[in-house]
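Subject: Interface between my chains keeps coming out wrong

I've been trying for a while to get a sensible model of this assembly. When I model each chain on its own everything looks fine, but I need the whole thing in one frame so I can look at the contacts. Pasting all components below, labels as-is. Any help appreciated, I'm running out of ideas.
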Amino acid sequence: MTLFPDDFLWGAATAPYQIEGAWDEDGKGPSNWDWRAHHTTCIAGGATGDVAVDHYHRWREDVDLLRQLGLNAYRFGIAWARVQPDGRGAWNDTGLAFYDRLIDALGEAGITPLVTLCHYDIPQALVEQGGWINRDMTGWFAEYAAAMAARYGDRVRWWATLNEPVCIADGFVPAPDDPHDLAAVQHHLLLAHGRGVQAMRAVNPALKVGLVTCLWPAHAMLGAGKAAVIGKAGERLPCADGTGDGWGAFSPDDAAEAARQADAAINRAVLDPIFLGRYPREIRDAAVGRPIHDGDMAVIAARPDFMGINYYSRVVAAPTRRPDGGIGWRWVGPAERGAPHTTMGWEIYPEGLYDIIMTVHRDYGAPAILITENGMAHADTVDPDGRIRDPYRRDYLAAHIAQLGRALADGAKVRGYCCWSLLDNLEWDMGWGQRFGLIYVDDQTLRRTVKDSGWWYRDFLRRGPR
Ligand code: IFM
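Reply #2:
Try treating it as a single job with all components included. I did that and got this:
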């Protein structure tokens, strides 16, 4: 018996800045990422999204590739600056028409669109007014969300307001160094989500509106090298000598606290406000002065129709001693532990997908879950016969989909799964070095070639996923 219902959404995902290019064509305004690429040295190798992988001009071919892969869903984002160049005021008809054509072509191909409103990029004109530090952003975002719902809501049912608010707050706005500014950015992002949900529901109550966040199960680690022990949340780590309560400078309780802090910073920073209407204790303690107005938390906690989960790996947190004597944490990467990992330096840990789905399902009671991103980067190469043999990616995807099946069998309401990514693309500040695609894109010609893992995904879906 198949675990996956017939209407399960099987797709692949992209983001506008990473693929579209045409950064200043047809009336598009500059975005914060255009500015970053043109005015800073943040992006490795001086890469820019000016052309990216030229999806703006090659979208027909890309939709055809989705069809060839037999996918019934496609997650993409709208570049706010393409449809509303200044983020306020006038709309850009040519930009709006681009997404009309894309959505219509997906409809003709029987592919369900899942649309993200803000996948890191915002109009640069809004950055010049403070960006996410400015509370007015929440209103401007809600107006944009409502306009998108009105324009495309007849054809697009699934909407995500933001992609990965924790990442936006941490590094993708003009980086807020001051902890108060960071707290403001985090809060305004979630408030923008909540106000966006309200605005879209007012336009069309039939829409499914949610939020996408990247979740990393946080595990605790004590000790170092081969002697180190790692435990899942809530597990009590053994002591070094089996008798006392210590392991060098730190105890099992310290390790548990480190993992709790990592979990709060990465996962609960979003899940608690959205589902419980409050920030986790660890975050409340760290940022005094968060600009919360009366009623904000209720707006943020307007129940989403689904939770979008991006899953790549787990975080292993070891305790550290803070200058004030308290316990802090540090991320112990897989290379340091000798664990298998991708070229992003992320551990390959499929079981974490099951764990994190069950957390969102059981502990937070999410009404529905979409896996909005999952995949691996590797330095893929083209063989002399033109094929891209990537058995590592096939194995990665198969292992993660198996965990998805486990979660479904255990009652989690998972409605879909999208590989990250459809195409090799610009990996933000890491530039062109990280190939995540099911489809290889040649650096020079931008020619697309489906990798073996892409054909494997097609065949897996054809066989009827189990
Ligand atoms: O490329 C990104 C994507 O834009 C957001 N989620 C993580 C991916 C890999 O880093």
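Reply #3:
Confirming on my end. The pocket of 5-hydroxymethyl-3,4-dihydroxypiperidine is lined by residues 15, 18, 164, 214, 310, 373, 420, 427 (CB under 6 Å).
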